[in-house]
Specification:
InterPro entries: DUF8094. This protein has 13 helices and 21 strands. It has 618 residues and is of the alpha+beta class. A hairpin with a 4-residue loop joins strand 12 and strand 13.
């Protein structure tokens, strides 16, 4: 009977294991589904809409094939359409029936001109306007998409394969060659299919257990059969004999062995030989069972609630993501480092503007003339600790970033601005954060913050008045009408300006106290302020302030000499003057300006100061 049960266990185990393996192989079906996008008309760009990528759930794998290097990038659909607004491209979307369709989109005349369309001049034919637009379109043809700051990420390689992607519907993928050659005409998008087999695991494991039981019953049956081989009736007693070792050849045949082999040991060895293969086979079967081969009996874990910030209704999308900002800032830092090494103002102009560019240009002039003049501090890019993008769908759009220098234990706060959809981001303001600075509460990078208008009344002081008010405080101290608006404690900038002015005045008076005078003043600089809103309805405001030193003679025959000041001598182009010299320093200053009704004062966050210009007074 034991043999019967063993055979039944073997049969049932074979059926269960076979059924489990079949579920994971021949009965499982395809693991992926692929959609092919075929384009008949040749255009330099192919824009695949997010609805096409999301027609099936799960991650997306995109593949494009053509000769040469291929390019692909992804970003917000609105941004990509803006970048393509002056070019001809193929747009891949879903129609009302959910089927893929392609459409060739022609360039917009407004986007080509870059201005609002005006009425044609008197006497100009309509076809002349169309011809001008076509010429402008031809001028933009061939623009390479590689390296644009607008993309969230980009890829470039032969036989382009991107996996995995998981883009939402509001994002699209741009595929191109070099912006001139036709884009790939055949692109495939592949999605994984959810083909779980929840009973494959239990069937395989259960079959393995039954097989082990069958082996156990089979061994018991053999053991029982061997015990029943002896005589059933008692016979005459037989003499005790010793076993003969028949394995010995030659002269030793017939010799009685003194070490008889144990029959139990032999039987045990056979059982072990029979059990081990079964266990090994079962272990191999178990390794093929992934998580989707088991039934999900327990409910999925519920994540614990965390504090979230919800964007205000109607707020526009943030200008960049954190990863995008890191890539942009790395590019800026690399380009500026090359410009610093080559003293190349034109190269610096590709990534700097405003007060930041003016300070670099002056530094290059001085370093070209003065051998030991210091190199400007490099632009910090990593690690990027804080990113506050402007929430704005149009242009220009800006970003405030804070990066740390792990070696010097310093931090830089910066403003980067993109003037239009085809331009690179440029750094317009940069300053070093105070050591004890605590930034106000900021919105997360995935929400961003709206910009504050320069004349906004919803702050303690409008952004376009901050520079002039602070300059007045520098000039007049406690006698300034704006003194009570600014936090005195922790303001190292005013302290350093006062100490530097006192030192220079003492040096001047050592030799020229009776023949000349040195005067100091501060005023708002030429660069427009920039402000982004904080969580508590305040704003981070970046402003430009100019400090002006004026040295003039007080005696008719006296002259002002600057032989001991090579910077002023180089910029002014003279070593002495009977009329005097005027030296300008440019300050880039960051403040936290609280909202109305707040008990806080305007607080200094960071600053930088560089010599800007020097000239001989007329």
């Amino acid at each position: 009977m034991r043999f019967v049960w063993a055979v039944l266990a073997f049969v049932l185990a074979t059926v269960m294991i076979g059924a489990g393996i079949a579920q994971r192989t021949i009965f499982q079906g395809p693991r992926t589904q692929t959609a092919t996008i075929s384009v008949e008309e040749k255009t330099p760009y192919l824009l695949i809409d997010g609805t096409v990528l999301n027609q099936m759930p799960g991650t997306q794998t995109l593949r494009a094939q053509a000769d040469g290097d291929l390019f692909a990038s992804y970003g917000r659909t609105a941004d990509m359409e803006s970048w393509l607004s002056d070019a001809t491209y193929t747009h891949v979307t879903l129609n009302g029936d959910g089927k893929v369709e392609t459409e060739v989109v022609e360039p917009e005349v407004d986007a080509i001109a870059g201005t609002t369309p005006e009425a044609p001049a008197e006497g100009a034919a309509p076809e002349d306007t169309a011809a001008d637009a076509a010429t402008d379109a031809a001028a933009t043809a061939g623009r390479s998409p590689v390296g644009s700051d607008l993309w969230l990420d980009e890829y470039q390689q032969k036989d382009l394969l991107i996996a995995p992607l998981q883009l939402p519907e509001e994002m699209s993928v741009l595929v191109a060659a070099d912006g001139t050659a036709p884009a790939p005409s055949k692109v495939t998008v592949t999605w994984p299919l959810q083909s779980s087999t929840p009973w494959a695991g239990p069937l395989i494991v259960g079959g393995g257990i039954l097989m082990a039981i069958g082996v156990f019953l089979y061994i018991l049956g053999i053991r029982h059969a061997r015990r029943k081989r002896g005589p059933r009736r008692k016979g005459l007693p037989l003499p005790v004999t010793e076993p003969i070792d028949i394995a010995i050849d030659g002269d030793d045949k017939g010799v009685i062995s003194s070490t008889p082999t144990s029959r139990r040991a032999v039987a045990s060895g056979r059982r072990a030989f029979a059990v081990l293969p079964v266990v090994a086979v079962s272990a191999l079967l178990f390794t093929g069972c992934s998580a989707d081969a088991w039934p999900q009996l327990a409910p999925s874990a519920t994540p614990s609630p965390t504090a979230t910030v919800i964007a205000p209704e109607g707020q526009q999308a943030p200008a960049v993501t954190k990863a995008q900002a890191e890539r942009i800032l790395t590019r800026i830092a690399s380009t500026v480092a090359d410009a610093d090494a080559a003293l190349d103002g034109d190269l610096a102009d590709t990534r700097l503007e405003g007060a930041a560019l003016a300070a670099r240009d002056t530094n290059y002039k001085l370093r070209a003339a003065i051998a030991d003049y210091p190199v400007p501090a490099p632009i910090l890019s990593k690690p990027l600790e804080i990113i506050l993008p402007q929430a704005y769908d149009d242009w220009p759009r800006s970003v405030i970033a804070v990066a740390d220098d792990e070696e010097s234990k310093t931090s830089s706060i910066m403003v980067m601005t993109q003037q239009d959809q085809w331009a690179d981001y440029k750094l317009s303001y940069i300053g070093s954060l105070e050591a004890s600075t605590s930034l106000p509460d900021l919105a997360p990078s995935y929400i961003g913050a709206p910009a504050v208008e320069p004349d906004s009344p919803f702050l303690v002081l409008p952004p376009d008045q901050v520079a002039a008010a602070y300059a007045d405080v520098i000039n007049n101290g406690e006698n300034s009408s704006s003194y009570d608006l600014f936090e005195v404690e922790g303001d190292q900038f005013r302290t350093s300006v006062a100490a530097d002015r006192q030192r220079r005045l003492e040096d001047f008076n050592k030799t020229a106290a009776s023949t000349g005078k040195l005067e100091f003043s501060s005023a708002a600089g030429p660069q427009a302020p920039f402000a982004l809103q904080t969580v508590e309805s305040g704003a981070i405001v970046a402003v430009n302030i100019n400090e002006i030193d004026t040295a003039t003679p007080t005696v008719g025959e006296a002259v002002i000499k600057v032989d001991d000041n090579p910077s002023v001598k180089t910029l002014a182009g003279a070593a002495q003057s009977a009329t005097g010299f005027e030296t300008t320093y440019s300050d880039q200053v960051f403040f936290y300006v609280p909202g109305p009704g707040s008990n806080e004062k305007i607080r200094l966050l960071g600053y930088s100061s560089d010599i800007l210009d020097a000239k001989v007074l007329p």
